[in-house]
Fold each of these.
Amino acid sequence: MQTFPKAEFIYDIRAKILYKMKDYIRALMNLNQAIDINPENELYYSRRGEALFCLKIYSKANDDYSKAIEINSSKEIYFFNRALARGCLRDFESAIADLEKTLELNPYKTKAKEIVIKKKKLLNKQ
């Protein structure tokens, strides 16, 4: 008997292609389908967060990055991306906390260091 990939992976592959084509709405639709099939795969939430971020729907992007972190808190990219979304939402203290967690998980993430310094300067001016 021949086995085929689960439908969730087909939706994920479609979403990746559509994302690269900058068709974020259709990428979201496919990621929603993948999440419906497997709501425990943190990559789908992270990818959906990226598409939402590109659409400037920062609050929902933040929610998806938070869900990815809830499932797997060992990937610094989830914290980094959530920090960017939180920065766009002007929640600078939470953004800095996420960037510091990013650096805790990966001390060599120089972009996170740069942003932390800039955000702290901005907070001190307020």
Amino acid sequence: MKIELKPLRNLLTRRSHEIDKAVAGTGYLAKTVIGVATFLLDNEGDVDLLTAKQQATFDRFIQPLLSKKPE
């Protein structure tokens, strides 16, 4: 499965504050989520290349943020 790169790039460059907000109080670090998103950008959005932990991070944080409208 592949995801659109433009919204992902937008999330990283213009909406990173939303990542900080999403991870607050969860025990995850924002840089972990940013790292997974960067990995996806580097690999042309191919979600099938993610490890199990990266997939969990993607499912929990990145996918919901990509689905909602920017703040």
